[in-house]
Design a protein that fits this description.
Layout lengths: L6 H16 L4 H6 L12 H19 L8 H19 L6 H17 L24 H11 L8 H20 L2 H23 L39 E3 L9 H16 L4 E6 L7 H21 L7 E5 L12 H7 L1 E7 L5 E2 L78
Parallel strand pairs: 2-3
Antiparallel strand pairs: 1-4, 2-4, 4-5
Helix pairs in contact: 1-3, 3-4, 3-5, 4-5, 4-7, 6-7, 6-8, 7-8
Length: 430
């Protein structure tokens, strides 16, 4: 329930009916109004009637434009934005969404009136953020982006314009009311996405000549459509990433083998789409890494295309070094960040969680460690001093007499020691 009482809506309706009779407005003045009053300014019947009359005037202007059919994107989107603006205005939206939707419709109608160039897949309509809305269902936004850039975009302009408005409307309900009011818009968005994909894929099909109708038509029993194939639990363990070498964007043979296994599952279940997201490690500038991640994701997409996957089932993003997967405290940590991740989406817009793999991880070569020389204490060189030579005194030369008489030393006799006399002194008495 909104905080504004329901009685206020009745007052708005009554004010419109009353003022339409008693105070008619000039269409030119209404068409000149390019903004709706915010909820806080909707305080009297005249303001409410003027805003709703402005919505009617711009709708009538769109219906009366002769060249609107030549630009199906702008004409369809403008009409849907006016519907969203009126619905949320009468529902007392508090987020500013009806005012933003009305301004968007006025911009598109003005471009139609000025005969702006019709959008193409090479110059598609830009994505416009809407006030009072949040982004929901990223997979559907990825589908919208992919189909806008597909060669068959011109065949699905009305469906894609409806898809864009429904996604923004769902984001407004999510912000204002939660999931309860969001689900119907998401269901319609999924249906618009399926119709748009079918028209884009069949845009270049060769027309078949119609056969003449038989005179008596025979009833044809329509067979129920085959059930949508659902992957098994084992098949859901699909790898969701491939890795790259340092500073390289080349897809290795190991990674090609991994992608080949994924392509087999995609061929088996054609309702699954893939969003490819490129990443790098943290080294280098942001601009260099953004460009490197773009080359990596584009090369992976080329491998999928070579394996027979349709371009409309593949969307790409590149994040550079903004979303690291692993802490870079080792060579393995940085290698895990050099990757392209794959987000698989089923036919109902739900993400299928794959499993991370490391079979193609490419570690950079370890740098040789630099060894620092340990200082040594210088030692004094050993100086061997020469030993002093002993002086050899030559024997004295004596004249030899004619005859030498040997001299003999007479033996000496030691006199006997005389005994030492000791005299005992007599004891004295006192």
């Amino acid at each position: 329930m909104r905080s504004i009482p329901f009685m206020r809506r009745s007052i708005k309706s009554l004010a419109i009916a009353t003022l339409a009779v008693t105070c008619p407005l000039v269409v030119a003045d209404i068409a000149a109004a390019k903004g709706l009053a915010p909820l806080s300014a909707q305080t009297n019947d005249a303001v409410i009637a003027r805003d709703l009359a402005a919505l009617d005037a711009w709708s009538a202007k769109l219906d009366s434009m002769p060249g609107a059919a030549d630009d199906p994107w702008r004409s369809t989107a403008a009409r849907r934005w006016l519907e969203a603006a009126r619905s949320e205005y009468t529902d007392n939206d508090r987020q500013g969404f009806p005012q933003a939707a009305f301004e968007r419709a006025v911009t598109l109608i003005t471009e139609l009136d000025r005969h702006a160039p019709v959008p193409t897949n090479e110059a598609p309509p830009p994505e416009v953020g809407m006030a009072g809305s949040v982004r929901v269902a990223d997979s559907l936004y990825a589908t919208l982006w992919t189909l806008k850039h597909a060669p068959g975009f011109r065949c699905a302009m009305p469906e894609l314009a409806n898809l864009e408005v429904e996604l923004a409307w769902a984001g407004n309900e999510q912000l204002d009311q939660g999931n309860c009011r969001t689900s119907p818009h998401l269901a319609r968005a999924i249906d618009w996405a399926a119709q748009a994909r079918e028209k884009v894929n069949g845009c270049f099909a060769t027309p078949v000549a119609a056969e003449p109708e038989p005179e008596v038509p025979t009833p044809v029993v329509e067979e129920p459509p085959p059930p949508v194939a659902v992957p098994t639990a084992e098949e859901l363990k699909i790898p969701r990433n491939v890795h790259f070498a340092l500073g390289k964007d080349v897809v290795t043979e190991t990674s090609i083998g991994i992608i080949g296994g994924i392509a087999e599952i995609l061929n088996k279940y054609p309702s699954i789409t893939v969003r490819l997201v490129g990443h790098t490690d943290s080294r280098g500038s942001a601009a260099l890494n953004m460009d490197l991640s773009r080359h990596r994701v584009e090369n992976v997409r080329e491998v999928f295309l070579d394996l027979g996957i349709e371009v409309t089932r593949l969307s790409v993003e590149y994040k550079g070094k903004s979303e690291l997967y692993s802490v870079e405290d080792s060579r393995r940590g940085t290698a895990l960040n050099r990757r392209v991740e794959m987000v698989f989406v089923d036919s109902e817009g739900r993400d299928i969680k794959g499993e991370a793999q490391e079979h193609d991880l490419q570690l950079e070569q370890a740098r040789p460690k630099r060894t620092l020389a340990t200082p040594t204490t210088p030692t004094k060189p050993i100086v061997r001093r020469p030993r002093p030579r002993r002086s050899v005194v030559p024997p004295a030369t004596t004249k030899s007499p004619a005859t030498t008489t040997p001299t003999t030393k007479a033996p000496t006799t030691k006199a006997p020691a005389t005994p030492r006399r000791t005299t005992k002194r007599p004891a004295t008495t006192r």
